[in-house]
Amino acid sequence: MAYIDLQNDLPGIRGPMVYRPETGKPLNELAEILLHDENNTLSRGERELIGAYVSSENDCFFCQNVHGAMAQYYFGWDMPILDALKKDYRSAPISEKLVALLQIAGKVQQSGKSVRPEDIDNARKQGATDREIHDTVLIAAAFCMFNRYVDGLGTWAPEDRQVYINRAKMRAEEGYANVNLHK
Amino acid sequence: MPYITVNENLPGIRSLMAFRPETAAPLGQLAEILLHDENNTLTRAERELIATFVSYLNGCYYCHHSHGALAACYLDGDTELVDAVRKDYANAEISDKLKALLQIAGKVQQSGKAVRPEDIDHAREQGATDREIHDTVLIAAAFSLFNRYVDGLGTVAPTDLASYPIRARQVAELGYGPHIYATPQPVTP
């Protein structure tokens, strides 16, 4: 049960987004551009993985499962690979560039001020561009918002992790903007 | 020096919004609805105070000075009250409802999970509505984003504190639309 009467029984962030569509709209548009827009040199899987990792660090069950399932879908992974990555991304089957970007995302999760010039230099050495570094920081920062919105209002989340896996294909096809949040 | 190459004439989040206008649009709209839209039972001053308080807790110099100046602008220049809210809101001369909402915002700043049912009950007892609690949580969460965005990319903040109130009057008048990342910080006379 959410802390306020959301006037709907939708899980996670969809509850407050439907409750307050005026703010739900820009939140979904932000997610669309950061995570789903194809005009990006980071793949959709890489961007969803950054979102899933930050959500895991923030211990947000709903967000880490939604976006973990999206990353799994794009990478073709099963759940154990993703769960191992959340514990130790340096041993995961991902590029050195993505490792460096996850390092930046992990710092952003703690605080903006935790990011050091060395973190940025390391990402650059692994081939990351300014735009990729920008998007990594903004995705990590955005999930610090989404996670707090979801848990700070005490929204509910399906406990069965397969539920999230089953929805990933639909979300990958539809994206985040202008979608029917009741579905 | 910002960590990425941005327009040096723009400070803080404005340099980042100009760097990536595609994400600037929804971020600006979110700020407009949460902080500037008049269709809200929380005053603009109350909402800017919540933003200032969270930014202060996050140690974000640019955000807490920018939004503190906006709060003061709506409070007829009462910078002492804004400072009292930053440092010790429980003893500031604000309503008990706003104190209860700042308590929730302070929890959200730590973590969404730090908010407890007792915090919500307490705010309700002081007269807060569901919508006001919702907006408080989302303002605090949004500034958990904005502060990290601004400091995580090492942006530059104007050190001339006298420029912030001038800028605040512009934002109070025009809101958080695209002018935010198209106009530089004012120069103080």
What does this structure look like?
- The complex is a heterodimer of chains A (183) and B (189).
- Chain A is mainly α and 183 residues long.
- Helix content of chain A is 66%, strand content 0%.
- Chain A has nine helices and no strands.
- Chain A has helices at 14-19, 21-36, 44-57, 61-75, 79-87, 96-110, 117-125, 130-152, 161-174.
- In chain A, α6 packs antiparallel against α7.
- With 189 residues, chain B is mostly helical.
- In chain B, α3 packs antiparallel against α4, α3 crosses α5 and α4 (61-74) packs across α5.
- The longest helix of chain B is centred in the last third of the chain and has 23 residues, at 130-152.
- At the A-B interface, α2, α6 and α8 of A face α2, α6 and α8 of B.
Topology:
The complex is a heterodimer of chains A (183) and B (189).
Chain A: H1 14-19, H2 21-36, H3 44-57, H4 61-75, H5 79-87, H6 96-110, H7 117-125, H8 130-152, H9 161-174
Chain B: H1 12-19, H2 21-36, H3 44-57, H4 61-74, H5 79-88, H6 96-110, H7 117-125, H8 130-152, H9 163-174
Helix pairs in contact in B: 1-2, 2-8, 3-4, 3-5, 3-6, 3-8, 4-5, 4-9, 6-7, 6-8
Order of helices and strands of chain A: HHHHHHHHH
Largest interface: A-B, 49 and 49 residues
Beta-strand percent range of chain B: under 5%
- SS-derived structural category of chain A: mainly alpha
Largest sheet of chain B: none
Produce a short descriptive summary.
The complex is a heterodimer of chains A (183) and B (189). Helices cover 66% and strands 0% of the residues of chain A. With 183 residues, chain A is mostly helical.
